[in-house]
């Protein structure tokens, strides 16, 4: 069975959308990860702020990395996000996971997305189901 | 005050991320829209299926278009999505809004995301706040 | 293995809170149920309208009945509710389930709560996990 | 205008359902509250554990008290709860609010529900809309 780092390396390999987002891994261990991206012009909507899908995508990747890093393939089944602060061009977004619950079958994670001034821009909550399939 | 089509045209103009997603407007009127995109290789994750952020981004745009088309600037305050079916490369995703509630101040929308075979791939729910600012 | 009706009868037997709510089963089959209650004075908050917990409790029971009626013990893992209309004393609330997705392991249900005038008062969404344990 | 304590006293007066739940206020100030209840037999479902509606109702009351205590009448518009641990008869449930965001118009609160052993039994998230009406 692979360890947390090997699993996420495998997930990121050939992951075109994460490459496009230029997701950067800051920290990672079983059930936890902290990742970031830098907002660029292609991520903006018509108001010249980041599209809500950018924060969501970063948090959804963080959820996937944290949950899969235990070694079982994990599938997201329900996620929610509250956007509370505008995200501007050139902002750095950091998503950090907090595991609220884990059983053999399901996991619950809250993820706070902050900017480079350490201000929260969005709160994400995600539930995953852990399958029987191992990463290898 | 602008009409629904003029407002969404204005929103889409200079909207780099929607351009990148190649979002296509199928139908649109006050409080309603139906939009689509075609999944391409850049939207895939390491499992060779579409990243969850792609369905979310399409639905979040649909929410914004439907809610803003009344003429008041609307802000998304809480959204959730349940992913229920894998989305493959070259699939077409269609997001259609259903307005569940609207007051002067807030609106509630459910959005179903289907693929080219008319099978649901995700269910999205979004709440917006209507500001006092008019589109003009 | 028990059938849908036998399972829900067993769930309701000794269910003190559902007795207190005076929940009434209108219709029931595998993966579906429609139940009601009549609001009384004990269910009101300080504004003389029904406490939000009343609609939630009715919908949560509907979720449990619909999901358990397949024969596997099902556990609710994530639920949300949007309250959109005031509920008055003596109103009848009806909760009807709609199964959006079902796999061996998880199920997703939307539940609309209407009043005696067939107007929606709340929208509920719930995800369950199906355990290996049979009802018997 | 009334202060936080006066507002919540007014909310609780004639609040029949909170009386039935025997909700107890532990701490309260603007934008914050901590309340509890003791589970009794009438709150149990057919599995002899507390019905999910009990934790929800406690958290929903906490949301209402925290948000209304600023002086403007606040309305809950979207709430979600994840139940993660069984609640037994005679357990004490404590709900404590954490204000994640507040603007003139909307507020976002996370609420953790713990038992007498300080173990989390549920996580609640709620969004409110602040009306123009003052408490007086």
Structure, described:
4 copies of one chain form a homotetramer. Chain A has one domain: Thiol Ester Dehydrase, Chain A (Roll). Helix content of chain A is 24%, strand content 44%. Chain A has 3 helices and 6 strands, in the order H-H-E-E-H-E-E-E-E. In chain A, strands 1-2-4-5-6-3 form a 6-stranded antiparallel β-sheet, with helices on one face. In chain A, strand 1 and strand 2 form a beta hairpin. The longest helix of chain A is centred in the middle third of the chain and has 17 residues, at 52-68. Chain A starts with a helix and ends with a strand. The model of chain A has no long low-confidence stretch (mean pLDDT 96). The A-B interface holds A 10-18, 20, 41-48, 50-54, 56-57, 60-61, 64, 76-83 and B 10-18, 20, 41-48, 50-54, 56-57, 60-61, 64, 76-83.
Could you provide a short overview of the structure?
Helix content of chain A is 24%, strand content 44%. The first copy, chain A, has helices at 4-12, 16-21, 52-68; strands at 24-29, 32-38, 72-83, 92-102, 106-114, 120-134.
